[in-house]
């Protein structure tokens, strides 16, 4: 099973992985140089972290997640081969490619001196998949969208007073993504929703009255 146990949030990773990720994506300070992923956009960092979290989830689901082993040492050729095989049973080629690519990028940030030749070989050999105008081929997994929504909401909460507006915007976007993934409705109806009119709260529970 791929990604059945959620470790997509950095906060849920093993302590060693968490420390290496924060170091690898940390901007330069007076005493430390940029981490390898410090110049990535915030959205890129989130995407790479989510991809690495899927890898951790797969290891955990298979009782193969040893928190005492360095991230690059866990990614052996045999494990990578098994992971790709598991992904290919349920994901489209483009998704498989992106999961492996983000795993390689995460290890590049956390363990920049590691040997990632087998990962790069896999990225170069995996099919990209064909672009297809059929909307059904572009649909994302509901669980992945909900995870993204929750990640954005969590990030929004983390912003302090100096970034309150940015945090509110991020929380709003995450809420919209998660809500639409769990309760798909027409966009024109979605944009018409108003608090206290169509979205109401009573006794700690929220209700939606969606206009037809």
Which keywords apply here?
212 residues; mainly alpha; DNA polymerase, domain 1; 9 helices; globular
Summed up, what is this model?
The protein is mainly alpha-helical. It has nine helices and two strands. It is 54% helix and 4% strand.
CATH architecture of the largest domain: Orthogonal Bundle
How many helices? The count is 9
Give helix and strand order, one letter per element, not per position: HHHHHHHHHEE
Radius of gyration: 19 Å
The shape is globular
Helicity level = 40-55%
Can you describe this structure?
The chain is mostly helical and 212 residues long. It has two domains: 10-131, DNA polymerase, domain 1 (Orthogonal Bundle); 142-197, no CATH class. 54% of the residues lie in helices and 4% in strands. The protein has nine helices and two strands. It has helices at residues 15-24, 42-61, 71-74, 77-88, 93-110, 117-125, 142-158, 164-182, 187-191, and strands spanning 199-202, 205-208. The longest helix is centred in the first third of the chain and has 20 residues, at 42-61. It is globular. Residues 1-5 have low confidence and may be disordered.
